[in-house]
Amino acid sequence: MHLRSLAVLLCTVIFAAPAGAATCGGDFNVFVAGMARDATAAGISRSVIDSALAGVTLDESVLAFDRRQRGTFRKSFEEYAATRVIPARIKRAKQLMQRHAALLARIEREFGVPATLLMAIWTLESDNGTGDMGKLPVVRTLATLAYDCRRSELFQRELIAALQILQRGDLALRDLIGAYAGEIGQTQFLPSSYIKYGVDYDGNGHVDLRHSVPDVLASTANLLKTNGWQAGAPFGEGTANFEVMREWNRSVVYRKTMALFAERLAEP
């Protein structure tokens, strides 16, 4: 969800900007060289930097999308929800709730987030991993947005975080594919959120938010829990948990849609 990702990004302060950070604008290759120096200062290995940044080019389509994507939620809640909370999605989500019942129960016990809400998020963000998770190389996307001077410092941090994902071995470079703001995986985490909230829930030693359903659902629950989710409490508009959901998406319309979808899943 692009608006959610960008909204979260605007308040992300996970990584301190390095001293003498790369200067936006100007020659793109000079900027990338500056980012390589910043990555080295952040502890990224030379091999990761070289493989990720070698030959990277500016993506004009990313800049164009970034400038026109504002206003996603000009629709009313009723208008927006009518296109998202639909019978086919509800049917599939209920089937997946049954298939993953044991996993969802375990996550709910550990993190306190209801299975219905996790399933709502998973469905809305990527149709449970079957829909559009983005097709763009994340490093190129983030290098492009970091080069652009509108929010350079923010995206420079995201680019460093993407390199950390590679360094940890969570995803190979060929799998570091995402959407127009660098969102990754089945519930569309920005790289900084991937690093901060990602959980290796299948126990294979890596946080894989593109392919591992346990990692995807547990990491999504962990984001909410870490930001103050109250287990067993309601999460409709006006509640404390509805405000916690703001860390997922700042839009009231989107959060109300999340809650409505969860409510529909709870119905027999």
Report on this structure.
The protein has about 270 residues and is mainly α. It has 14 helices and 2 strands. It has a two-stranded antiparallel sheet. The protein is globular.
Number of strands: 2
Task: Average the pLDDT over all residues and give the rounded result.
Answer: 92
Structural class: mainly alpha
Major sheet attributes: 2 strands, antiparallel
Q: What does the overall shape look like?
A: globular
Radius of gyration: 19 Å
Low-confidence stretches: 7-19
Our count of helices gives 14
Strand share of the residues?
A: under 5%
List keywords for this structure.
2 strands, 14 helices, mainly alpha, two-stranded antiparallel ribbon, 268 residues, globular
Layout: helices, strands, pairs:
Layout: H1 2-10, H2 28-41, H3 46-53, H4 60-68, H5 77-84, H6 87-99, H7 101-111, H8 115-126, E1 136-137, H9 138-147, H10 152-168, E2 177-178, H11 191-197, H12 213-226, H13 240-244, H14 252-266
Antiparallel strand pairs: 1-2
Helix pairs in contact: 2-3, 5-14, 6-8, 7-12, 8-12, 8-14, 9-10, 10-11, 11-12
Concise synopsis of the structure shown:
The protein has 268 residues and is mostly helical. It has helices at residues 2-10, 28-41, 46-53, 60-68, 77-84, 87-99, 101-111, 115-126, 138-147, 152-168, 191-197, 213-226, 240-244, 252-266, and strands at 136-137, 177-178. It has a two-stranded antiparallel sheet.
